[in-house]
Amino acid sequence: MKQIQIITLLVMGILISSCGEDYLDPTPVSSIGSNGFYKNEAEVQAAVVNIYDGLQLAVQREFAITEMRSDNTKTRSSEGDWAQFEDLNVKSTNSTVADYWAMFYNVIFRANTVLENLDAAGDSAPKFEGEAKFTRALSYFNLVRLFGDVPLIDKVIGPTDTEYFDRDSTADIYALIISDLQTAIQNLDNTYKGRASKVAAQALLAKVYLTLKNYGDAQDLCEDVIGTSGIALAPTFRDVFYTERNSEILFAIEYVNDIADNSQDFSLEFTQNGRVRGLNYATPELITAFNNYGGAARTSTSLIYDDTSTAPAIPDPLQDYRCGKFVSNSTANQQNGNDWIVLRLADVLLMHVEAILAGGDVTSSSSAIASFKKVRDRAGLPTGSNITKEDLLNERRVELAFENHRFFDLVRLGVAEQVLSDFATANGIVFTTSDLLLPIPEREIGVSFGKLTQNPGY
Known about the structure:
The protein has about 450 residues and is mainly α.
């Protein structure tokens, strides 16, 4: 990882599982146990770095269970398990869903391991606590929004700790997320963009509060982020993605070209050379949205025409367009170095508008218009004298396309059922309200001693 020392084989020996194993399996992969390992600050620091290594793996297929379950993206050829996402027909045996669950619980395990060994961290203990709690909160925020009630595991557990195998209420999960992020805000500074920071924790907590309809606290946090020294929109939209660690980035998961353990392959999958000849391709509906609301700079950066011939002057919804934000830049194809952006300022500026809307349909607040205008100005587009919820949804869609926000935006703003139902009808597929949650992976139910139950509709 950029700016982070690559972890040694000795440190890797403390892990309980690889990303593909069930999260309930606590067996170490080597004879080096965590009880005897964490003796000083350097060793705890290595465990902190290990959390980010886990995130590198965990987010690589997130596009499938977010963007491809919305009206934004699809596969190029509608083949295999990937087509379950675009068809809103995800099975409990889907391996991508199972791996996502296991990977994020593995990140939670790594964070819990750090939190249980802070006594060895010396003066760095508060910072390491903030990083561990930020990453644990991020993991649980993703899981609770995608699966609903999930097991709350706030310590390193063993195979006999079956009381942790139950599903806990979303209220309890959100209480832990909020507490973790409040600690992270208190303990962190803004040194890093590829590691947890105060400003990233503030932005994430603001999004949590928006999800819970706590608009006042969300607005305050957004304004804190917007006013933070050194945080500013990148000069051009393209700079956001092709000048890494720029002023707009609050938190990104960092990768390096051509180093297998620190590279990603989603950039390759977003092309016709990827598996099933292309994943995360723009739907006709997304292409139309760019034509209506995108502006030239955002459209040309976001969409790449998939033909070798000259692209149409105006993107054609009947043609294939792939994501242009994370173009493969590796000599080894599957070992790309494009960072995955989790939080950036444009998202927060639009969250600020959402907080001021406070569940309403329109606002003429000068503060909301000022934030909206910053995003629109960079796109070369005018801003009116008021902002509707529909304006906000359209702006978020084209500004943040392919960045895994659309599905969560639809749910949070209360329009998911209508939008996805209309999308399904137009595309000859079936949508039911149970599709708003993913199935609990069948293999996890199988190893939970009957504790885990399935979501309705699966």
